[in-house]
Amino acid sequence: MTDKRVKKVVLAYSGGLDTSIILKWLQTTYGCEVVTFTADLGQGEELEPARQKALLLGIKEENIFIEDLREEFVRDYVFPMFRANAEYEGVYLLGTSIARPLISKKQIEIAEKVGADAVAHGATGKGNDQVRFELAYYALKPDVTVIAPWREWDLLSRTKLIEFAEQHQIPIAKDKRGEAPFSVDANLLHTSSEGKVLEDPADEVPDYVYSRTIGPEEAPDEPTVITIGFEEGDPVSIDGEKLSPASMLEHLNQLGRENGIGRLDLVENRFVGMKSRGMYETPGGTILITAHRAIESITLDRGAAHLKDELMPRYAELIYNGFWFSPERELLQGLIDKSQEFVTGEVRLKLYKGNVIVIGRTSPFSLYDQDLVTFEEGAVAYDHRDAEGFIKLNALRLRTLAQRKKRLGG
Amino acid sequence: MTDKRVKKVVLAYSGGLDTSIILKWLQTTYGCEVVTFTADLGQGEELEPARQKALLLGIKEENIFIEDLREEFVRDYVFPMFRANAEYEGVYLLGTSIARPLISKKQIEIAEKVGADAVAHGATGKGNDQVRFELAYYALKPDVTVIAPWREWDLLSRTKLIEFAEQHQIPIAKDKRGEAPFSVDANLLHTSSEGKVLEDPADEVPDYVYSRTIGPEEAPDEPTVITIGFEEGDPVSIDGEKLSPASMLEHLNQLGRENGIGRLDLVENRFVGMKSRGMYETPGGTILITAHRAIESITLDRGAAHLKDELMPRYAELIYNGFWFSPERELLQGLIDKSQEFVTGEVRLKLYKGNVIVIGRTSPFSLYDQDLVTFEEGAVAYDHRDAEGFIKLNALRLRTLAQRKKRLGG
Amino acid sequence: MTDKRVKKVVLAYSGGLDTSIILKWLQTTYGCEVVTFTADLGQGEELEPARQKALLLGIKEENIFIEDLREEFVRDYVFPMFRANAEYEGVYLLGTSIARPLISKKQIEIAEKVGADAVAHGATGKGNDQVRFELAYYALKPDVTVIAPWREWDLLSRTKLIEFAEQHQIPIAKDKRGEAPFSVDANLLHTSSEGKVLEDPADEVPDYVYSRTIGPEEAPDEPTVITIGFEEGDPVSIDGEKLSPASMLEHLNQLGRENGIGRLDLVENRFVGMKSRGMYETPGGTILITAHRAIESITLDRGAAHLKDELMPRYAELIYNGFWFSPERELLQGLIDKSQEFVTGEVRLKLYKGNVIVIGRTSPFSLYDQDLVTFEEGAVAYDHRDAEGFIKLNALRLRTLAQRKKRLGG
Amino acid sequence: MTDKRVKKVVLAYSGGLDTSIILKWLQTTYGCEVVTFTADLGQGEELEPARQKALLLGIKEENIFIEDLREEFVRDYVFPMFRANAEYEGVYLLGTSIARPLISKKQIEIAEKVGADAVAHGATGKGNDQVRFELAYYALKPDVTVIAPWREWDLLSRTKLIEFAEQHQIPIAKDKRGEAPFSVDANLLHTSSEGKVLEDPADEVPDYVYSRTIGPEEAPDEPTVITIGFEEGDPVSIDGEKLSPASMLEHLNQLGRENGIGRLDLVENRFVGMKSRGMYETPGGTILITAHRAIESITLDRGAAHLKDELMPRYAELIYNGFWFSPERELLQGLIDKSQEFVTGEVRLKLYKGNVIVIGRTSPFSLYDQDLVTFEEGAVAYDHRDAEGFIKLNALRLRTLAQRKKRLGG
């Protein structure tokens, strides 16, 4: 694969040791110009050190791209996904999956701008992230060359990586010399941890793995009550205070973190075919999905709600598998977005030691009709006798079946 | 509808005031023989008083049927449903829905035995339960006559009901004279509450409505750790102790109750067309669904798991709508049951103030393969280079699309 | 139900004997003002006689509404449905179902205009059409009163109907005195026949029942070759000649009719619960669905195409059941419409004695890439070796399963 | 990939030139023992010449396996698939896809028997068949080595192949020297043709490509009327004569062939990512699917039928993509098979110049109830007034929506 001739490559660069090694390896292996792209998706790291590191490694000033994508990430990726109540395999809120398409998109935009013919990422050859990055690359720039160093090089042990770093004067932080006890990915939506100490699914996740939340046990004894305002399916305010998408998620994260909310220990099925065990912390997202379901419960019609529920597993799978930029995801998104027209109102929640408890919902567009439920006759009259006909016709085919059975001596 | 001529009717009889009034009303309105059926589904009430009450109201000894259905209920209804991870509208564990088919089935069996031509139930004309009872009746005995007093009579206020009771010497407990502030249904799986004080979905559920669980705030400060053993998708032991289905659910209920687990405040879409607000307490079921998903996570193949996830919303809807005895529910059940062949093993859980936290899972049939996940080569070799081809072919159609877009100047 | 007080009712009026009887019955039973609505949906009948008949029956000039809906019908109902390749129960092109919502919509619009509080239709109490009419009425005017004479009156035999007509000086054509050997519904999309001579599904449909097509046996020995042009999923031209929606369908009908195309003898499942046997003639529609699938085959991506295929049965069921004006149909329609953006091009067809044979398709937006299929390398290179990785990773979970089986001695 | 060490390989061997070259290439490249497996799936070729050819090419007598799989193929693969009414992309009857799993299974059985560590097939690197063969291999023997010569060797032109054949004394039929104008695959279910002259989807399929059917134009002027008997979803007799599965399909093929039935010209989406154009002849299968739908129409309940229809596209996709031996296909098959319990009866068909016309169906288990459809009251009474309640409750949510719209001034 090193026979691909590459002139200029845009690397997804974090500034950390691993992507610094990749940077150097690209230079030495492909002899090509390297352009770095460092994005702030809310992973909680400073971006300037990445610039310094890139310069140090010989990247030209004009080849260093750094961008704060937090608002775009939440507005155009996280929120659209939450409109679908997407949960992969029933529980996982897709925090890693949803970040990849945006990074890929930006790399491709930069590649177009600087005339690069290749892109590179630091995802390993066994995971889902390589798929997510690369499907997005190809979907946006079909003729791009993709370099996936972890699938190509022979730096297959920590020792070899460190040797390579030393050889090429890459600074190595002390705590990076040994193998990490687990690997971490973070963005504004979540932190995921996997590998090593987490590998046996029989063993409890050690306390030191958690970084984003306190445990339910450590959370305050007093519940926190908040009201989230929604407009057309997206959260727009907390306790009446309007918030931008990223600020909203930050606030929810803070609330979730403090109340021990959003931890998940999971064995999941990777797209590349094996099962893996991960630990996820999604404090704000966990609050958000509960609140979103609650506001939908009074504003969405049953037909729309059940259609969404039936399509959700496939929608979540598409995002998990890396098909964000695919016609089928876009078609489903269009349907989901259109369903949210009246998903506007407020949800009151109690946050308490890991629990997200809905305690009230209101909406100017509520379909909940007290008159229909009680005995009082509402504007839409409900006649009890209608139920008889309703049941009789719903039962008709079942009765016909039963008669066949009877006829057969069943 | 009172022109239906009825000779003998089997009434689902709880022994309470309302079904006692129905009993009398059937006798006086239809002039027919009434057979009572009282079932123990774990609602937590004595059955003998129902017998005494029936005798008092003039029911013949041989026309009183009382049965403890707890084991059958859990084994043949609750557990099969949990194999599917069924949740209606994303969250509701279907505790009321699942009890109706069994009661109906028993009523029909008794009707066949005693030669009754009709059955009756005490469900109201606005709810789902009438549908569930009656679809089951018709599916099992297509020529049965169904009497639904709440849809037929004119006892439409509490005052009229009480008057009728007094007129017919039906004993009235003091606290039953006034209108209850909410109505309750209970069985071994759950307790549901709805109506009156719960009618405004903006208002928090008052504390006094909860009867089945303590609140997370009142739960112990120390977590409870348990291990649930599964065999072919069903829970069979707690901490190594084998338990019958009903005992299992009772134990889980006790554990859930003590740890503040399983409360749900929900606005749902009824089959009869309106939204209603309910409060559910499903302590054991809430533990069970989490545990079941966890044991599936290591024993079910992705293909089977995702198929189940996609079919679940419709399966849950069928049960909610009362189609337990329908070909489509039975076909889906067959598929679900078959998928559980290897869903055997143990799940360790931490229960803490409303949280059900998975902390470990093991199985003799685990598909989790540590060798595949780590760099070590397993019995099934994973070659990193395979990922490239995998991605390339998955990307092929997306690249073709991108080229079309490009050609069009997109 | 005759206790509903009604002042003015808009009747879907064909001018035929049955709806004339209904007209009179409404006047005499409800004592209300009757407004007639007669629509041309391409059923092949003159509309003016309906006006004369209405006048004769005492309807005021300003209460007679007659409208040619052919273009609207095809453009806004038929074509959108064909974008979905909708077939109910695998084969039925929904010709009756799709006409009802439009008629209902117009009735409601007239009701709003003339200040009517009720609407009425002539559908029987055993069929689907009553459901389709009424669900549309309620969805568009929730407080409307619906009168369904066939469910209310006691004119339950032909004799009684004729008596009523005679009593009220309704002119009776000679051939309408006796019971028709089958009933017919027609519009621009199809003609359906059912009842009486068609009732035994074991018996072949008698020749005289067909009215819209010649049989394959009578069709010409020479095939007809045509080219249909599509734009964004809709047919717009035949052999280069641009045609309006209704003209397009008329032309296709003519072509189908002459070539013995579009007959269907079917036992179907009605929404109201029983099976019924019908005979449908859909000459143009049968050509159209084949052509539409063909143009999609080169312009739609697999992801979009398969998503559409999976959603189609439910979409067709919604239309069949009368849920055209429902959020779920509208959401699905939005998805389907969006998928058609590039479904533009030409399809060449051979029509021959009942057969519709695709013999060629071209599109400026074709995704068919000859270079990819042959050995020549295209703009998007296809590397044979990629297939190995693709297969290996797709096989990974199956191999893991096989190893488990082996381990268990399977 | 030639670094895989292989001792003994089981080759799917047709006896033709291409697989003979593969045979020799395996011997010379891998230096391994070659075992040939030649199966009769009804492709219409003698098997004995394959034996002679194998002997000639140096295969030991005991390493030559020849088997007539026709009955097994139809009974265990074709019929189960037709129970689902499986059509890929709406029209393709999966004739090629369904043959691969059986061949693979037999190769693996032979590999186990003779102690081979590898299997090989002659499918190209761009098609679906390689995927289907190999997924089946891996699912049945996870540690097997798979050799796919067309992905590995450098015999990438006809000239090189012929040279290799000459070099190794492989007999070459005269008509095999040049490149074939299209490639063909055949078995008892169908013949498929693709490539070269078929590559431009704008061009009509030339007449000489068809080999399995006469054209509708050449078919007799007299229709053929037949009655197919079904038992539990499978055809068992024609005109009263019991037939084994393979004989059944042969008879249907003959009938289809003579009446110009079963041609399909299609652009389809391959699993490996590109579109391809193929021409299929499935004479018997085309008759069978129509007949099967017809017998289901009177014996299957609506709930079961619609569930099947909704699952069908995914089931067909699984088979097309090669996942026959996967848990999800097996689970769906279980559901489908169970649904067929009462799919027993007779269907009368008219075959005429490409048309398959249902003219009658009967069943001892028919759910079609004439009494329900007509005005006469059946054993299960249908009360017209029930329809009102049925509609009213189905309309309730739509009315609530309409009121919201109204409130908003919509």
What can you tell me about this protein's structure?
- Four copies of one chain form a homotetramer.
- Chain A contains 13 helices and 14 strands.
- With 410 residues, chain A is α/β, with parallel strands linked by helices.
- Chain A has three domains: 8-69 and 96-176, Rossmann fold (3-Layer(aba) Sandwich), CATH 3.40.50; 183-362, Argininosuccinate synthetase, chain A, domain 2; 370-408.
- In chain A, strands 3-2-1-4-5 form a five-stranded parallel β-sheet, sandwiched between helices. Chain A has a five-stranded antiparallel β-sheet with strand order 10-9-8-13-14. A four-stranded antiparallel β-sheet of chain A has the order 6-7-12-11, with no helix packed on it.
- The first copy, chain A, is elongated.
- The first copy, chain A, starts with 7 loop residues before the first strand and ends with a helix.
- Mean pLDDT of chain A is 95; it is low at 375-379.
- Chains in contact: A-B, A-C, A-D, B-C, B-D, C-D.
- At the A-B interface, helix 5, strand 11, strand 12, helix 9 and helix 10 of A face helix 5, strand 11, strand 12, helix 9 and helix 10 of B.
- Chains A, B, C, D: Belongs to the argininosuccinate synthase family. Type 1 subfamily.
- Chains A, B, C, D: One of its GO terms (biological process) is L-arginine biosynthetic process.
- Chains A, B, C, D: Its EC number is 6.3.4.5.
- Chains A, B, C, D: One of its GO terms (cellular component) is cytoplasm.
- Chains A, B, C, D: Pathway: Amino-acid biosynthesis; L-arginine biosynthesis; L-arginine from L-ornithine and carbamoyl phosphate: step 2/3.
